Amino acid sequence: MAVFTAEQRNHGERLDVFLSKQLNLPRATIQLLIKGGSVFINAKKILKSSQRVRENDRVAFAERKQTKQALVAPNASVPLTLVFENQNVVVIEKPAGILSHPTKFNRDYTVVNWLLAHFPEMKLVGDHEERPGLVHRLDKDTSGLMVAARTEEAFYNLKAQFAQHTISKQYLALVLGIPKERSGTITFPINVSLKRTVKRKVDRSHKTGTPATTHWKIRKTFADTFALLDVKIETGRTHQIRVHLAAIHHAVVGDRLYGGRPAMELGLKRQFLHAYSLSFKDVDGNILAFEIDLPKDLQDVLSRIGD
């Protein structure tokens, strides 16, 4: 546990400002640490970043306790593709059908199991022992790019960028029907469905729910039946793209949960949603940017409907 004593010149400073100077971390990162219950003033846990420090206050930052053994077993057989690695981060391509992290139904065949097999030091990184290194996720049947952190510094650096919506994530989605406009933005807040907790719904009144923003534009159309959309999200809510596109009556093809049929007649066994582009700042401030092609199953669908 790191402990800092506030001096006279610090009297009246916001807690996040004070700790940002002491730890040499961005304020957004400090705010996440405070919100997560890792910061104390005079032995009292503080959850508000706006808390003011006083002269002689003892401000403590409790680093995550390191466990000797990960709660998740390594598994190198999970079929992921390593796109990039350095001392700070790992970028991988996840195929459809693979979970991002363990659940009570699948604890051995996920992105996390693969990461621990190849980068065992990651078991001590992050704020959740069953999701070490993970700063975001992709739905099981969504393919594409993911980034994970190899160090605590990288973890909080990425978390801060996600919180500030400065990480760029772009997807390709094939949807039913042709939107009337060439591009648009969806800002419906998202709630958990009362009928099925695995499902999400939008609040068209904007009175309840978690804020969510999705930008889309048409990349290509196929007769009057399908449109290939380029989608960029500012927030990363569960099922965000899928529920937002369904809310404007253009559900993702193959997404049975949100009405995105047909699929099987196209030879598609999952939703047509692929995270093809990802960019972010590394801990040294350099921008890392990645882009990958559509996987074969999605390319085959485009070939069929384009004939």
Features:
4-stranded antiparallel β-sheet; RNA-binding; 9-stranded mixed β-sheet; 19% helix; rRNA pseudouridine synthase activity; alpha+beta; Pseudouridine synthase; Structural Genomics Hypothetical 15.5 Kd Protein In mrcA-pckA Intergenic Region, Chain A; 6 helices; RNA binding; 15 strands; 307 residues; PsdUridine_synth_RsuA/RluA; single chain; 3 domains
Q: What does the model show?
A:
The radius of gyration is 22 Å and the shape is globular. A hairpin with a 2-residue loop joins strand 2 (39-41) and strand 3 (44-45). The chain has helices at 15-23, 27-35, 111-118, 152-163, 240-247, 296-306, and strands spanning 2-5, 39-41, 44-45, 58-61, 81-85, 89-94, 143-149, 168-176, 183-186, 190-192, 200-202, 214-222, 226-233, 273-281, 287-291. Helix 1 (15-23) packs across helix 2 (27-35) and helix 2 packs across helix 4. The strands form 3 sheets. Strands 5, 6, 7, 8, 9, 12, 13, 14 and 15 form a 9-stranded mixed sheet that branches. The chain has a 4-stranded antiparallel sheet with strand order 1-4-2-3. A two-stranded antiparallel ribbon has the order 10-11. The protein has 6 helices and 15 strands. The model has no long low-confidence stretch (mean pLDDT 91). The termini are far apart. It has 3 domains: 2-61, Structural Genomics Hypothetical 15.5 Kd Protein In mrcA-pckA Intergenic Region, Chain A (Roll); 81-163, Pseudouridine synthase (2-Layer Sandwich); 168-277 and 286-306, Pseudouridine synthase (2-Layer Sandwich). The protein is 19% helix and 26% strand. It has 307 residues and is α+β, with helices and mostly antiparallel strands. Its EC number is 5.4.99.-. Belongs to the pseudouridine synthase RluA family. Pfam families: PseudoU_synth_2, S4. GO terms for molecular function: RNA binding; rRNA pseudouridine synthase activity. Keywords: Isomerase, RNA-binding.
